[in-house]
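[Meeting: bench + compute handoff]

Bench side (C.D.) handed over the final construct sequence. Compute side (W.E.) agreed to return the predicted structure before the next meeting so the bench team could plan truncations. Sequence as handed over:
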Amino acid sequence: MAMLTKPFLIILILIPLCLTTCHDQGKKADTDSTPAAGGTGSVILLADTIIYDVLISNPNHDDTWATKCLSRLNRKAMIDSIFSMVYQERATAYNFETREKMTVKQVTRMESAAGFSRDNIGMIQFTEAWYLDPASANMTKSVISLVLGYNFYASDGELFGHKPVFRIDLNK
């Protein structure tokens, strides 16, 4: 009984803390503003950091909605360009877990490992900042970083999730 009580108490303490932190972050994003580029108003910072995943390949070919959503994406060009930026040292790859810089040699070794294929990259996780200019009804996003996600399959062949390949920072 005592073992169940301790985790329960920890959860009870952490929930209000998380809610307060999220509430305070929302207040900051709502009130931060900077002059608009054209000087005609102010741009509101909606999110200084927002993280979300985007599937870039459809693991379920019966899902016609996902197929339609991805129909205009040039996935191969995007992935090849990201790797090319890393290989040409115009972008730095970072190990997602350790946050350490990866060398071109490490990326090459990872990519040449048995079983690795760019075709299995099926997700990108974006970290962005979002801005809104109410005067012009214009919303912009600035990509801070992206993480390529490698499809990870269960033993029955179903997509189980994604493993991070690497992170690169953009717009520095």
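W.E. noted at the follow-up: The two ends are 52 Å apart (CA to CA). C.D. will use this when planning the next construct.
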